[in-house]
Amino acid sequence: MRSIYPVLRYPDVHAAVDFLRSAFGLTVHELHSGPDGAVRHAQLGHGDGLVMIGPGPAPASRPADDDYRVYLAVDDVDAHHRQARAAGAEIVRSPFDTDYGSRDYAARDLVGMVWSFGTYGP
Question: How far apart are CA 60 and CA 54, in angstroms?
Answer without folding.
Answer: 16
